[in-house]
């Protein structure tokens, strides 16, 4: 039996202590290997940082941050690109007992600013561009008193990291932080609701590390290709080597698979974690090139339901001894369950095609799962006997040391997502409501059926998205499907959106729709589904290209199925205003070019006002219009052109 490399969560040890222990044990071992510029031939150049070098940098930075006033409990916005500096900053803050505030850049600027505003951080560490946003967003960052710039400081005050690292004097000792002390605040993606600040304690983080270590057979000897910085932090806790993948952190799904294969082969990576979309691209590339990855022994995917086709494709390009794990979890608890590819392809995939949902495996040791009846509002207390029997679909609740105890200064979110239970032995437990639908089968395996908020509440029954979509996704011509509901809850009209290579409006599409109706009639979860809409490209989350924006698709479907507006409707009349503006703008310009224009100040002022409203104002709306345009099946260029032409009178109606 392999001994765990992670201290027990019950001890007072913190994450910074784990890194310090590893640096003392093997100072010359590579800790982080990361892209650093380009080779003469154009490929990525990599640089290596050892555990001893990383620990020395951590202590150096921690000393400077402490002298600047960042101490135990200081909430600190941490915005740094993936690399050794990011890890050194994170562990320096852990060492001081300060609390990093981390937001996924893939959620977009508006959501990021909302997250930072909710936290009220007192310190801010980031590059010059981030500080420019901070200076302009005084309302969001009004409580920041200690700014630290990565690179050259511009017109704002504060410190530079380079100057803090040069701070003289004996190094600041590590704070006595660990156990239930607050480690960091990480935000949910906000893909199905407002982003929430999740509190991580040292105990929780160490518990997560131990569960991943046990579930996936992680060892100190592993070399891990990292596509998410959080997993790099875990590698440094294990004492393994982390290789940062050559990709843009906010666009992981768009990573070049050739560069990923180069990194995997160059450093002999033995493990990797990636989103389903990234793994699909990687498997397709390896298949097309006729290559394999003999060193890769463990691949883990999560973040969204992983299609069986992705699992099957990976199995064909990996060594037969390699394992492919699909994990289920959330920002509030990692991991909840895990399942290996042999069980998926040999058994559970057939159930998915019959409408059973997606099997996400057995709960990892130390994590308890309970299925309870769906409640849309708060659930104050978990009563005895509320657990549903095997096979019954309900909301998934989770309890254990790897579960976040609360959200940060968000009592309303706690009331909605946390529920207390008092056991007969008087022990008080806090369960996390995942907001997901699922059930446990007779073998103790968990089946995921969709989000509670996205279930279609039709007359007489609820329809579960993932259960229904599994039936249609089994059709060879269907890339993806998405069940949405139109209308009020309890009387919603179910509609299935279909992403396929079959041309819309063609005879082949009509034949496919007929086949899908027949397929729906064969299975109980999909019986009665009759309406299928062709959609060119589903709206998905920016980062992983995996979570479908069903709320956006529902608006699109409602718009598509609504009766056409009358010729002189308000919506059509509103579009005449920007058209008239463009006509006045172009007519005035043409008149000025070919003839003498009367010098009428009012007309000249109106022309310049029209130019401002038609050009910069419409152009500024394009970023807001793009998500709605994608959801409605419009390409980026078409969305930009129509927004320039019509402005908000077009895209707000999508």
Describe the 3D structure.
This protein is an alpha/beta fold. Helices cover 39% and strands 22% of the residues. It contains 21 helices and 26 strands. Strands 1, 2, 10, 11, 12, 13, 14, 15, 16, 17, 18, 19, 20 and 21 form a 14-stranded mixed β-sheet that branches. α10 (276-289) links the parallel β12 (271-274) and β13. The longest helix is centred in the last third of the chain and has 25 residues, at 570-594. The radius of gyration is 27 Å and the shape is globular. The N and C termini lie far apart (58 Å).
Briefly, what is this?
The protein has 654 residues and is α/β, with parallel strands linked by helices. The chain contains 21 helices and 26 strands.
Report, as a whole number of angstroms, the end-to-end distance.
58 Å
Strand % is: 15-25%
> Can you count the helices?
21
Low-confidence segments: none
Number of strands: 26
Radius of gyration, taken over Cα atoms and rounded to an integer in Å: 27 Å
Mean pLDDT across every amino acid position? 90
Largest sheet: number of strands, sense, barrel closure: 14 strands, mixed
Structure classification? alpha/beta
Helix content, binned percent = 25-40%
Principal-axes geometry comes out as globular
Oligomer: single chain
